[in-house]
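BUG-398 | component: ligand-complex export | severity: low

The export step for 2-acetamido-2-deoxy-beta-D-glucopyranose jobs runs without errors, but we want the raw record kept on the ticket for reference. Input record follows.
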Amino acid sequence: MILGPVSYLDCMVFCLFLTPQLLIHVGFFETIYVVLQCLPFLLFELPHSFIHERFFVEPNKQPLFVQQASPFEDFVVRCVRYAFANIPPKVGRVFFSKSVALPFLRFRMLRHGYVKSPVHWNEYRDKRFKGVWIIQEPMQKPDVCVLYAHGGGFSMGSSYFYLEFLITWLSLLRSAGYRNPAIFALEYTLVPDGCFPTQLQEAIAGYEHVLLMVGDPEKICVSGDSAGATIVLSLLLHLANLNRHLAKMSKVGTWHLAKPGMAILISPWVTLVSDKHRNTASDYLDAGNLHLYARQYSGKHIAAEDPLLSPGNCRDVEWWHKATPSKGIYLTYGTEEALALEIERLTKFWEECGVNFSSRAESGGIHAWPVACLFLSNSSEDREKGLRAIVEKIRRTI
Ligand SMILES: *[C@@H]1O[C@H](CO)[C@@H](O)[C@H](O)[C@H]1NC(C)=O
Ligand SMILES: *[C@@H]1O[C@H](CO)[C@@H](O)[C@H](O)[C@H]1NC(C)=O
């Protein structure tokens, strides 16, 4: 099931689902306060910068993203940039939550004629973790499985917000020839409800569960975007180094878990805090806020240099070699994103020490575009481009 592009009607319906949830979870007065605070931006700043940059700046002086973005993409990215820098995370959290995202997906499905989903999904939880299984044939063993950790700065996002993206991914895996592809979307604890190492422990338990369901580790691809990719890298480092860190991670089982077949990282936030993070005219991330989230995720007691917390800090060649999946790592990011220089610093190190990886830098691209474009772009070619590259990589590998 691949739904069509997001329409203006979809946007209105989304707001319709969002409003009551904001009133419930954020409260009447605070919601009004946040809306009032946004008004100067929405009424003056946004139309002014939009019109000015698109129509009065020479094309070659425009930010790279603006040069290639459609008006809708440009408009939404400006709003997201403002929201990321100015709106409290607890509002963002409602925006991306299950109670808004799931009815929205159901609406979009209905609009495309699906009363019932052609793809099976169900929530799974046990004492240690929870998540959502998405699978073509739940009664049969998957022939490929993606363990996915969503992004959102550790403080926002949910598997349900990513459900349409993941179902599209599953459909493309089917078209690529897999008989019964599956995706397990990890629903890790968000900050400030819990901080490191809770999320890593959940990822380890989730991986163990996926391994049990799939059987063959070579058929597993671990993946995530942004903060989710941080957790995936931490998971890989952990799997390679059970002994050294077992003492710290007392709740985790002591048996050895085989490493996955491959890893796919979308705009990974490799190092939590770095002076190489920068605000760009194109991207919507704000480096200052990233570091704020990073501190919340780290909690009080952990050294920020700990590679399990901030994998980009790991400069241990042998550890990386042991951590790299048997068929390597594939990494995709945009050259204009706030995290690009730090990603390149790590891949340069990997290259020097012979880690098996490949990467694709989208010129003029911004953060997590393979995810965002599905919702913002118009033609199916543009919307599915990032995912198709990922699926092709999986097909050639697993
Ligand atoms: C490196 O990864 C590729 C797939 O991306 C795989 O085909 C190859 O066998 C790997 N090489 C080594 C030395 O592990
Ligand atoms: C979106 O794409 C469709 C065809 O897929 C086209 O007819 C329509 O004009 C496009 N809309 C915009 C706003 O570009």
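Assignee comment: Attached the raw record above. The two ends are 23 Å apart (CA to CA).
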